[in-house]
UniProtKB/TrEMBL annotation:
Any Pfam family: DUF2071
Native species: Sphaerisporangium corydalis
InterPro entries per record: ADC_dom_sf (IPR023375), DUF2071 (IPR018644)
Protein's name in the database: YqjF family protein
Annotated stretches, region: Disordered: 1-20
Lineage: Bacteria, Bacillati, Actinomycetota, Actinomycetes, Streptosporangiales
Length: 254
């Protein structure tokens, strides 16, 4: 990190950098974002070294994000249809590093395929867990279910039902802050790592939370959410390209 931290980059609906040589490609489909306000003091101890909570108006957020991962692929090769496609639900926090790069930190990532879980844990040090999961649609209502298998805590679960509403023509500052994230902060093999990503602007829709029965947030070491969420959003999805990890302490390429 630089000796004097740089101010955070602006929040932009489009990626601030290109990904000319993707390391990974995938699509995030039927994505539902549920967010609660959080105290930065509760979040800070859970972040990797070298990053701090990203805040908007002095508040940070914890997100429960459920979606369908679709066709993970390496480099420019076609995505894998079976092993690369599965439901996923993650608990994520919002971070910024000393170079001003905004990102997310995943406290947990529940996925329905064991092989991708093992690869992500071994290769990237990500907190993937193997879970029994499903995504079901009934008209404009989607239900995402998850129950953890390995490594645990076994039985940690989530049942999330949302009713999808109309499109959002002009997202608010908060809606951009929660969804326009162009990288991931993590610690891999004991070293800080920033993994950049690019994708088209999220096509966002309003959503109503019909049911939320979960203990994934508490299992991730955070206070259990109380009260109504600050934001509930849905998107049909976007194709995503991940670039190679940035070197520890390297400034972002332009």
């Amino acid at each position: 990190m630089p000796s004097t931290p740089i101010a955070p980059e602006p929040v932009t609906a489009e990626p601030p950098r290109a990904t000319p040589r993707p390391l990974l490609t995938q699509s995030w489909l039927d994505s539902t974002f549920v967010h609660w306000a959080a105290d930065p003091a509760d979040v800070a101890p859970l972040l990797p070294a070298g990053v701090v909570p990203d805040t908007l108006g002095g508040v940070t957020y914890v997100g429960l994000v459920a979606f369908r991962m679709h066709r993970i692929g390496w480099f420019r090769l076609p995505g894998i249809p079976y092993l690369g496609s599965f439901p996923e639900t993650n608990v994520r926090l919002y971070s910024v590093d000393g170079h001003g790069r905004r990102g997310v930190v995943f406290r947990s990532l529940d996925a329905a395929r064991l092989v991708p879980v093992l690869v992500a844990r071994a290769g990237f040090g990500l907190s993937y867990v193997w879970s029994r999961m499903a995504v079901r649609r009934d008209g404009d209502t989607l239900t995402y279910t998850s129950r953890r298998r390995w490594p645990g805590p076994r039985g940690a679960h989530s049942r999330l039902t949302v009713r999808v509403g109309g499109p959002i023509e002009a997202p608010t500052e908060l809606e951009h802050f929660l969804t326009a994230r162009w990288g991931m902060h993590n610690t891999t093999f004991g070293r800080p790592m920033y993994l950049p990503n690019t994708h088209p602007r999220w096509p966002l829709r309003r959503a109503t939370l019909v049911e939320c029965d979960e203990d994934l947030v508490a299992a991730a070491g955070l206070p259990a959410p109380s009260g109504e969420p600050a934001s509930v959003l849905y998107s049909p999805g976007v194709p995503v390209r991940f670039g190679p990890p940035a070197r520890p302490g390297a400034a972002p390429a332009r």
